[in-house]
Amino acid sequence: MAKIPKIIHQIFFQGETAVPKKYQGYHETVIAHHPHWEHYFWDEAKSRTFIQEKYPWFIEVYDSYPHRIQRCDAIRYFILHYYGGFYIDMDVECLKPLDDLLEDYELILSKLVGFNNAIMGSVPKHPLWLKVFDELQERKDKLPSNSNINALLKKSMPYYVCYSTGPMLFDDCVIAGSFHKCSTVRVCPGYIFEPGAPMEIDEKIIQQNSTEHSYTIHHMASLWLPLHHRIISAIFSVGAKVYWNIISLFKKVRWAEAHRTQRSN
């Protein structure tokens, strides 16, 4: 059985010297707790070169994304497919080493309302990534057809990113392939990596703020959002959890549809 290699990947497209002080502090906690792991830092130029050299069939889609965050989303999947290891967002603070989670698992996932792509562990060439690659191409110019989602929301930048390259795409791929049901996959409840974020327990969305059992804290800075979206979020106290507010809504719609179907049968 293959094991997840002790490699940590982090991405900041503007380059390591441009990392904000707060992010640099989080980055240093990751390094400090993993002195014997390899650390790969990816900027925009290195990421594009990697795709062009290792996955040239995807470069046209990669270059065509209108938003930088979409390329940042996409590259992490290819990195994990090729190298394996852990991908960790730059706004993730590490509280203790990840070594105890590895055991003999081939995939380690964070389960919030859906499966998040902010922190993920994988062996190289795990089949999940092939499903993700297919969906990245399929969704490049598409929006979900679900009629219960508000048309304005579906056309918004955050929703489009979430659906085309982000957590919604990732969650759909995990579930479609039933990867979360495999014995070689470790599904970590939200408080392990992302305490304080909305998480799903028995079809109920709750928040658990305690870090007693947490390995990391995802601060969800959401700097990828345009300024006007960040302002709107602040006004309505939505904060940095925009992704998961969107996915929560999407999940509730799915549950309602499933329950209506059951009643009609």
TrEMBL record:
<dbReference type="Pfam" id="PF04488">
    <property type="entry name" value="Gly_transf_sug"/>
</dbReference>
<dbReference type="InterPro" id="IPR007577">
    <property type="entry name" value="GlycoTrfase_DXD_sugar-bd_CS"/>
</dbReference>
<protein>
    <recommendedName>
        <fullName>Glycosyl transferase</fullName>
    </recommendedName>
</protein>
<dbReference type="GO" id="GO:0000030">
    <property type="term" value="F:mannosyltransferase activity"/>
</dbReference>
<dbReference type="GO" id="GO:0051999">
    <property type="term" value="P:mannosyl-inositol phosphorylceramide biosynthetic process"/>
</dbReference>
<dbReference type="InterPro" id="IPR051706">
    <property type="entry name" value="Glycosyltransferase_domain"/>
</dbReference>
<dbReference type="InterPro" id="IPR029044">
    <property type="entry name" value="Nucleotide-diphossugar_trans"/>
</dbReference>
<dbReference type="GO" id="GO:0016020">
    <property type="term" value="C:membrane"/>
</dbReference>
<keyword id="KW-0808">Transferase</keyword>
